[in-house]
Amino acid sequence: MVPISLPLSLTLMATLGTFMLFFGIYHLVGARQAVNERLGEYLGPVRREDTETSTALSRRKEAGPSSFSASVALDLARANLKLTVSEYMMLHLIAAILCFLAGFAVSHQVAGGLPFAIFGLFVPRMYVGRLQSKRLTDFNNQLADNMVLISNSLRSGYSLLQSFEVVSREAPVPTSEEFLRVVREVSLGLSPEEALANLVRRLDSEDLGLIVTAINVQHEAGGNLARILDSISGTIRQRVRVKGEIRVLTSQQRLTGYIVALLPVGVGLILYVFNPTYIMQLFSFKQVICFPVIALPVFAAVLIVVGFVVIQQMVKIEV
């Protein structure tokens, strides 16, 4: 494989610079329009959430899972990232170009940079998924205690919305942020049912969905909401405890999955450090039997990913 030329390197850098230029122009020109649109979500005839990403929650509910932009915006809202869909997709492109340049700097070959570029396309998605998982886990772990706080506030004479305000002040992040958003949505014109429905869509928590259902049923049929929340919080507390025990029991198997997935990559990097000529033969387009040699690391990467996913699914136990 012939090393990439200097003009091609300059072309790649110029392409990245052009994207960054249009990215900046987009922000300068569209900033005021974005503010007006977001204010219009509250003041206009159609009431939705307070950010562009949260707005897509309602659109996703109406349009279904086929809307790609609504699906991406929902993921961003669940990760609590204040990014538009176009900004998020731009990050994919920038990450792919930067990873390609890093791969070329290491291998000095275009073929050596392509796997890095493919990996770079998935880096923003993996980061968003990690934020979603951490945020949801933290919220579920805090939910039982916060339900006790709400029930105690109801017993002391507070209304449900005032109890939410207490949680927004006293609870840790992310619970305080989410309930503060519920309070703000109600104060700006949404009904409590709509604000709670938006909260469930943002977090996608089964425990939270159970609580919101209980609140809606109590609103229609009446009853002692404080006692209902106490009962549900006890159930949630037991589920969190069982999940923690299962996570401890399956920690060795999950660690095995990470080791199996990272071991080939680590061995490849060590071989590249000590003998780069030898390992780079895998990234050539030389024909062997009926397929190029580069197909070997590609197939190996696919099998590694499949094996990692299978192991993670095996140790994933629903409670």
Keywords for this structure?
319 residues, mainly alpha, Receptor-associated Protein, two-stranded antiparallel sheet, 13 helices, 2 strands
Describe the structure concisely for a colleague:
This protein has about 325 residues and is an all-alpha fold. Helix content is about 80%, strand content about 0%.
Model description:
With 319 residues, the chain is mainly α. Among the domains are: 138-237, Receptor-associated Protein (Up-down Bundle), CATH 1.20.81; 250-319. Strands 1-2 form a two-stranded antiparallel sheet. It has helices at residues 6-43, 52-63, 68-78, 85-107, 110-155, 160-170, 175-187, 192-203, 206-221, 225-249, 251-274, 276-280, 295-314; strands at 287-288, 291-292. Mean pLDDT is 79; it is low at 41-66. Helix 5 crosses helix 6 (160-170).
Number of helices: 13
- Record field, number of beta strands: 2
Model regions low in confidence, pLDDT < 50 over at least 5 residues: 41-66
Mean pLDDT, to the nearest integer, reads 79
The gyration radius over C-alpha positions equals 25 Å
Main sheet summary: 2 strands, antiparallel
Order of the strands making up the biggest sheet: 1-2
What is the percentage of strand-forming residues?
under 5%
Order of helix and strand elements from N to C terminus:
HHHHHHHHHHHHEEH
| Structural class estimated from helices and strands | mainly alpha
**3D shape:** elongated
What is the CATH class of the domain at 138-237? Mainly Alpha
CATH architecture of the domain at 138-237: Up-down Bundle
Through-space gap between termini? 52 Å
CATH topology grouping of the domain at 138-237: Receptor-associated Protein
The residue fraction in helices comes out at: over 70%
